[in-house]
Design goal:
The chain is an alpha/beta fold and 185 residues long. Helices cover 30% and strands 16% of the residues. The protein has 6 helices and 6 strands, in the order H-E-H-E-H-E-H-E-E-E-H-H. The strands form 2 sheets. A 4-stranded parallel beta sheet has the order 3-4-5-6, with no helix packed on it. A two-stranded parallel ribbon has the order 1-2. Helix 2 links the parallel strand 1 and strand 2. Helix 3 packs parallel to helix 4. It is globular.
């Protein structure tokens, strides 16, 4: 199964923020679909590790590609499970998992679920007790341009003439479950 555009977009937002703070390596995994977008993202970094030819994602492949380990390993992949995360602990100082459904366990230091209405309690028995759990839309991984636009939009709503008249709803880069039809109904 390949990663959708939403996974790529949220990782791009996080990667851009990390890059602005001096982080420099980006790893492309085999299940990532959007190669053109990722190529642009990789240009932001002074070092890039491409594992697209290595076959299945494995902790061993990552450790061979990065023999000195890493400070932060961000995993945004439904195909990587608790066993994978545990195997990465020997060389990754901190493991962050980006998730959107509290239906499986993780062995991580940080878990991010930016789903609207999600609460840290939803992951109570799914992550180690010491894990930092960041839940809810307050933690949404948005590009800087969207954050700026939101501030402008909120200010303009104070004026009655600028009250919203239309709503834009997006289901991400792909709508494989036809959620758009459900929302429209």
């Amino acid at each position: 199964k390949t990663a959708g555009g939403g996974h790529v977009a949220r990782c791009a937002s996080l990667s851009t923020a990390l890059r602005s703070r001096g982080w420099f390596t980006f790893v492309t995994l085999p299940r990532t679909d959007d190669r053109v977008f990722l190529k642009k993202l990789e240009e932001l970094f002074s070092q890039s590790v491409d594992l697209t030819d290595s076959g299945a994602v494995s902790a061993e492949a990552l450790s061979l590609a990065m023999p000195n380990g890493c400070d932060l390993l961000v995993i945004d992949d439904y195909g990587c499970d608790r066993q994978f995360e545990t195997a990465c602990k020997s060389w990754a100082k901190t493991i962050m998992v980006i998730e959107d459904q509290p239906n499986r366990g993780h062995d991580c230091d940080i878990l991010l679920d930016q789903t609207f209405g999600r609460r840290a309690d939803d992951y109570k028995d799914k992550v180690p007790a010491a894990a930092v759990v960041l839940c809810g839309s307050h933690y949404a991984l948005l590009r800087h341009e969207f954050r700026i636009a939101r501030v402008r939009s909120l200010k303009s709503r104070l004026d009655e003439a600028h009250k919203p008249k239309r709503i834009f709803i997006s289901m991400g880069a792909g709508d494989t479950t036809d959620a758009t039809a459900v929302v429209l109904e």
